[in-house]
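Hello Y.,

Per our agreement to keep a running log of every chain we model this quarter, I'm adding this entry. I've kept the format consistent with earlier entries: sequence first, then predicted structure.
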Amino acid sequence: MKKKSIMDRFTDFALKISEPLGKFANTDAIFSIVSGLTVVMPIIMIGSIFLIFYVLGSPDVGTSGKALLPFLSPWTANFVWLNNVTLGMMALYCSVAIPYTFAERKKVSTKSAALMGIATFILFTIGGLDSDGGILINSFSASGLFACIITSLLSVTILKWCIDHNITIKMPSSVPPNVGMAFASLIPYAISFTVAWFIRSILNFDFVAFLNSVLEPVISGSDSIWTAMLLSFLVLLLWSIGLHGDNMLLSLFTPFGLMWINQNAEALSQGIPANELPQVSAGLGQTGLLRLSIWTSAVWPLNFLMIISKNKFLKNLGWTTFGPGLFTIVEPVVYGLPIALNPFLMIPFVLSGTIATGIGYLLMASPFLGKFYALVPWATPPFLLGPLGTGDWKTIVIPVMAFFVGLVIYLPFWRLYVKSLEEVVDAG
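Predicted structure for the entry above:
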């Protein structure tokens, strides 16, 4: 009997878990979340494009103090503003799209559900006005996405429950259906709004801040391969369930990264070569090793697989997300394909970035590659970020390695995912 290769064994494992994963993916809640994220993809894409314009026009790219495309420099602030109200308010848009799709599955009014969803989300995440009479909109970004998912599912569930149990205001049959539905929704609206308002305003419980505080104990350890891999694993795990792993976890390590990059800069000024600098993870949270390894292994292979796919949707999506992906703007793929809460792609997504980070750490810790001593903007393409931040062009080997590691890990899962899409088309 011929011995199975590692790839064959990995494929067998993926096949064993494909059926339960498929059932999980088709539950009303998960299907609605994934569909809702897909619906807001155009908004995410527009925001990503303007963020690229900002990077190209920013004088902070590299160490020269000059913009890559100087003619864009006068509008960089405007590019950032447009990105902030599109990509930066993703959770707000999802608070309409997810309840809408969930209501379709539950066979209740989609219009009522969408309005109920966005209002409940706002009440659940805003505790009041600031000193100037304005509202804080931090939770409207991807950091508030998990709160959005909870309020979306909860509000539609309340609407469905009230209708099923006739806990509604019924109007005479002569009243137009739209007016009748408006009155029928009053009690479900009141219940949903009151619950959200009571939790956020009366109990003063900030769910988004609570999630961040729960993650604070993770901030420990030192510059080591195990810390780098653990951090990569947790960041990708958060992304895989729809949370912004970079904002919620990775950004908390920025002080450590800045301290380490200063130590490397001081050592470099004392004549120590770049390949002998002390801190391998310098720049953590802003730039550095993880920017070279995570997305080049967790997202770039998917861009490649989509582009070469025979599936028109995947091919078009691959080319559409190629530009943002090149700048490691991964939201269009994570939320557009999506990877988030996708049972076929979550596992390779987390594994690829974690393993590639470990290998990348060993490479950068070796005497053959330089370490980061300059802070480079996070959206700089990895094949430029390494040479600019370390002064060593050989760091290109890390994103190249990460890409192939991710490709090998994704292949068996990708085949199952494409097959699942074909089965949905055939069934339709």
